[in-house]
Design a protein that fits this description.
binds nicotinamide-adenine-dinucleotide; two-stranded parallel sheet; alpha/beta; 342 residues; binds thymidine-5'-diphospho-beta-D-xylose; Rossmann fold; 11 helices
Length: 342
């Protein structure tokens, strides 16, 4: 493998993967295919060597462009997506267009040119789990975490389109022998995450003198993983994963939203109760939790950045030091949330 396409490589997680590949695998040439939507930012690729990373600004829903680029590479790693649940509740159409039609175009071109394909997906395709306190095994019994065998049961237009795209990959693998793998990862955090998302929204609220906003009571649990660990897992699957397999990526980082918010407040020297409860998200998933034993045992992957407190501290420092990266978007993001009482 020498030449790869990374779709969505100017977004939060995709750009982290591009940095990971450039820093750790000197023989790889990367073409980033990214539409630079509101969530994409060329600055996320700043400092990378031009001779190794080429940015093509374009849409994965453009079949002709996709076909032209895919014929020249050895692998496609597909991150590009409309990725925010709240946006999908306001206007689902872009989610169908990018997440379904865009994925379809990539699959068709990879099939045509026999190109290796890795599909980056999410744990949300499985729907949600009950809170640990309501489970007989307290979350450790059989079926109490997501595995590759958990039935699909998505809740939002976002997760439904991600689920649909996963199913396309499975069908193309079985019917056309596409050389594909899928990964379903839990909630990522770290630098460069768009400020519409939970953790950066609260950090940048505090930095802007706005009170943080917690949906509902804040009991919902997310299984946090540092985005650097997501990148190393995707690389392991791309290079060592068995074709046709699905691997779940997670780092045993379950936390409820209230605890995360209170930790952010503590790390930013704010009073513990200095936040607002706001309208809950429609259809809000209760708990996500990943059983990543298949990935760990088969491919020898282990997460490196598992100290959540330290990871959050570094993330807070990054947003504090990089106001230029997020400041211009802040007002519009908050105006949108305010319209929904959030
Ligand atoms: P993001 O919204 O930060 O970035 C998405 C990127 O895709 C942006 O650069 C955007 O410009 C690009 N893009 C959007 N539509 C496009 C199109 N039609 N053509 C080309 N490029 C387009 O998203 P993210 O949080 O970095 O997520 C990346 C991937 O990882 C997504 O597939 C998402 O479903 C998956 N994922 C995310 C998380 C998470 O916690 N954020 C967890 C698991 C899986
Ligand atoms: O202001 C907020 N207050 C709040 O309480 C926001 C923006 C969110 N929340 C809650 C909702 C969720 O329970 O925080 C939790 C995390 O919310 P998001 O950051 O929007 O993430 P989530 O909906 O869990 O989805 C994320 O993880 C899975 C990514 O956005 C998806 O792309 C990924 O697939």
């Amino acid at each position: 493998m020498k030449n790869i396409i990374v779709t969505g490589g100017a977004g939060f997680i995709g750009s982290n993967f591009v940095h990971y590949v450039v820093n750790n695998h000197p023989h790889i040439q990367v073409t980033v295919l990214d539409k630079l939507t509101y969530a994409g930012n060329e600055q996320n690729l700043a400092g990378l060597p031009k001779e190794r990373v080429k940015l093509v600004v374009g849409d994965i829903a453009n079949a002709e462009l996709v076909d032209q680029l895919v014929q020249d590479v050895d692998a496609v790693v597909h991150y590009a997506a409309e990725s925010h649940n709240d946006n999908s509740l306001n206007d689902p159409f872009p989610f169908l267009q990018t997440n379904i039609v865009g994925t379809y175009n990539l699959l068709e071109s990879c099939r045509k040119y026999d190109v290796r394909y890795h599909h980056v997906s999410t744990d949300e395709v499985y729907g949600d789990l009950a809170l640990r306190e309501d489970l007989p095994g307290k979350g450790e019994g059989p079926g109490e975490k997501f595995t590759a065998e958990t039935p699909y049961n998505p809740s939002s237009p976002y997760s439904a389109t991600k689920a649909g795209s996963d199913l396309l990959v499975k069908a193309w693998t079985r019917s056309f022998n596409l050389k594909a793998t899928i990964s379903n990862c839990s909630n990522n955090y770290g630098p460069y995450q768009h400020i519409e998302k939970f953790i950066p929204r609260q950090i940048t609220n505090i930095l802007s003198g706005i009170r943080p906003k917690l949906y509902g009571e804040g009991k919902n649990v997310r299984d946090w993983i540092h985005t650097d660990d997501h990148s190393s897992a995707v690389w392991a699957i791309l290079t060592k994963g068995r074709i046709g397999e699905t691997y779940l990526i997670g780092a045993d980082g379950e936390e409820n939203n209230k605890d995360v918010l209170e930790l952010i407040l503590e790390l930013m020297d704010q009073p513990k109760e200095a936040y607002d409860h706001v309208n809950d998200r429609a259809g809000h998933d209760l708990r996500y939790a990943i059983d990543s034993s298949k990935l760990r045992q088969e491919l020898g992957w282990t997460p490196q950045f598992t100290n959540f407190r330290e990871g959050l501290k570094e993330t807070i420092s990054w947003y504090t030091d990089n106001e230029n990266w997020w400041m211009a978007d802040k007002k519009a993001v908050e105006t949108n949330y305010a319209k929904k009482g959030q």
